[in-house]
Amino acid sequence: MANFPFQRLQTDLAALIEKTPAGQRLLSEPKLAQKLGVSRATLREAMRTFEAQGLIRRRQGSGTFVVGAVQALDSGLEVLESLETLAQRIGLEVSVSNLSVDSIVADESAAAALDIPLGAALTRVRRVIHAENRPVAYLEDTLPASALGANDLPKDFHGSVLDFLLSRGDLLTSSRTNVSAIAASSDVAKPLQIQRGDVLLHFSAQLFNPEGKIVDHSLSYFIPGYFRFHIVRRVGNGG
């Protein structure tokens, strides 16, 4: 019974969001908290649930907006595929913004992730992926310059470093991925048009060639409501 007031708040918020047209702004936090009879902190905690579902989006300095129903990208994690490939499969149009391709040198973190010497030449590719004209993912790939030069990507690059490497014939065999939930940093929150501290689904992956060398270290930040990832596993026989 202790959670009943909070559950009622979520029910009231769900009803409010459902009857508010997509694209319309909700009342400001102080006014909405007063209307619902709760503190701003409690209201903010309840609203995170609907942000994670992709139903609302908070924009710094602008307020909270109703997003409306979204088509989620649903994928198993057994096979590595790009977001563009997943979107094409379900007929969802995606686009790229905030693209930056930079030549950098390996610091301690990059050197460890790619198993290369400190100071090695690298190429870093950052971009935001949009679906239905909404930012849904922030992607960052870091590769040895020998694997991808800063000028190698075509002008019509669609956002997937993986697809580009495969299209030019690179042999890639496997990927090791760590999955976690993290709080959005300001550097990631701003291009995704969310609040710093909002929860994101985070993938940190290493891509390997047939010789076992790491050719790409990628960081992917997903707004949860737009993605449904799953794993199909065999049942162990106890042996």
What does this protein structure show overall?
With 239 residues, the chain is of the alpha+beta class. It has two domains: 4-66, Orthogonal Bundle (Arc Repressor Mutant, subunit A), CATH 1.10.10.10; 73-230, Chorismate lyase (3-Layer(aba) Sandwich), CATH 3.40.1410.10. The protein is 27% helix and 33% strand. The chain is built from seven helices and ten strands. The protein has helices at residues 4-19, 29-36, 40-52, 83-89, 108-114, 161-167, 186-192, and strands spanning 56-59, 63-66, 73-76, 94-105, 121-131, 134-144, 174-183, 199-208, 214-222, 227-230. The strands form three sheets. A six-stranded antiparallel β-sheet has the order 4-5-6-9-8-7. A hairpin with a 3-residue loop joins strand 1 (56-59) and strand 2 (63-66). Helix 1 crosses helix 3 (40-52) and helix 2 packs across helix 3. The model has no long low-confidence stretch (mean pLDDT 88).
CATH overall fold name of the largest domain? Chorismate lyase
- How many angstroms separate the termini? 44 Å
Name given to the CATH architecture of the largest domain: 3-Layer(aba) Sandwich
Number of strands: 10
What is the CATH class designation of the largest domain?
Alpha Beta
Main sheet record: 6 strands, antiparallel
CATH superfamily placement of the largest domain: Chorismate lyase-like
Low-confidence stretches: none
Backbone structural class: alpha+beta
Whole-angstrom Rg: 21 Å
Task: Supply the key terms.
Chorismate lyase; two-stranded antiparallel ribbon; 27% helix; six-stranded antiparallel β-sheet; alpha+beta; 7 helices; Arc Repressor Mutant, subunit A; 239 residues; 10 strands; 33% strand; single chain
